[in-house]
């Protein structure tokens, strides 16, 4: 049975000397009351070790307790507190519905899920750390599975990209818009499987920068579907088109990395290394 560490008064000091103004029970209560989308957004913002936390099927209270316990032990409660104080309570809704997708400063995508949870996707394609290459080669079978999943998704996003481009080139074409929406609907189950499989992969594979950036593909699908529903030409549709193109590049990058690792693995096998 999980137990939340005993909490002191507000103003407790973490291991690294950082002053935390919220008590642990206050943080737990805020985390418990957060919508699931906001909770997942918080995990992303504090770079939580999701491979060490219970999965999304576990009660949110259990996941929150594990998160607080881990961050208290590391003296990092201030990171959680900062995000809680900024985003735990979403701004009051206005008459204008918020956008699902925005490109900020041309260096990252800001994506909202239907509940308002925030996800960031960097514009720059992440590189695979060289110092992880040896570990990756030892886990070649996992990379083989990831290669298969990524290849399947890449074909779906490529088809979606083509239909969205035709929407732009042919004006307000309902045929291609319906085809694009159908593509998104077809991709989403695969994206969910992909995200679940990433969570089951060894940490050196699933948490590697090129792969971790694709963990929230289902949320990206929702943002793309929202974009496709906007008229062409329009900024939301154009942003969605850029996001699809960027995901294609991320998936293709993942395929290249998997190819490199598998090629090196078979070379080592052939040489008896």
Describe this structure in words.
By secondary structure, the chain is mainly alpha-helical. The protein folds into 2 domains: about 10-85, no CATH class; about 120-270, Up-down Bundle (Four Helix Bundle (Hemerythrin (Met), subunit A)). The protein is built from 11 helices and 5 strands. The protein has helices at about 25-35, 35-45, 60-75, 75-85, 135-140, 140-170, 175-200, 205, 210, 215-230, 235-270; strands spanning about 10-15, 20, 100-105, 110, 120. The protein has a 3-stranded antiparallel beta sheet with strand order 3-4-5. It has a two-stranded antiparallel sheet with strand order 1-2. A hairpin with a 5-residue loop joins strand 4 (about 110) and strand 5. It is flat, with a radius of gyration of 21 Å. The N and C termini lie far apart (about 45 Å). Mean pLDDT is about 75; it is low at about 1-20 and about 90-100.
């Amino acid at each position: 049975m999980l137990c939340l560490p005993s909490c002191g008064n507000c103003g407790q000091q973490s291991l690294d000397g950082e002053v935390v103004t919220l008590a642990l029970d206050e943080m737990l209560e805020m985390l418990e009351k957060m919508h699931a989308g906001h909770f997942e957004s918080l995990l992303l913002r504090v770079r939580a070790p999701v491979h060490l936390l219970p999965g999304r099927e576990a009660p949110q209270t259990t996941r929150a307790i594990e998160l607080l316990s881990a961050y208290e032990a590391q003296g990092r409660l201030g990171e959680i507190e900062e995000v809680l104080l900024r985003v735990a309570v979403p701004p009051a809704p206005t008459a204008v519905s918020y956008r699902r997708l925005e490109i900020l400063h041309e260096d990252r995508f800001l994506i909202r899920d239907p509940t308002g949870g925030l996800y960031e996707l960097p514009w720059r394609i992440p590189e695979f750390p060289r110092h992880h290459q040896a570990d990756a080669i030892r886990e070649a079978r996992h990379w083989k599975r990831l290669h298969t999943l990524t290849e399947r998704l890449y074909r779906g996003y490529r088809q979606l990209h083509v239909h969205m481009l035709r929407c732009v080139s042919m004006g307000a074409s309902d045929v291609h818009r319906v085809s694009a929406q159908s593509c998104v609907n077809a991709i989403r189950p695969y994206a969910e499987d992909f995200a679940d499989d990433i969570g089951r992969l060894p940490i050196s594979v699933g948490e590697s920068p090129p792969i971790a950036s694709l963990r929230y593909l289902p949320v990206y699908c929702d943002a793309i579907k929202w974009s496709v529903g906007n008229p062409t030409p329009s900024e939301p549709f154009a942003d969605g088109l850029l996001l699809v193109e960027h995901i294609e590049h991320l998936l293709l990058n993942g395929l290249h990395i998997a190819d490199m690792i598998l090629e090196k693995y078979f070379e080592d096998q052939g040489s008896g290394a």
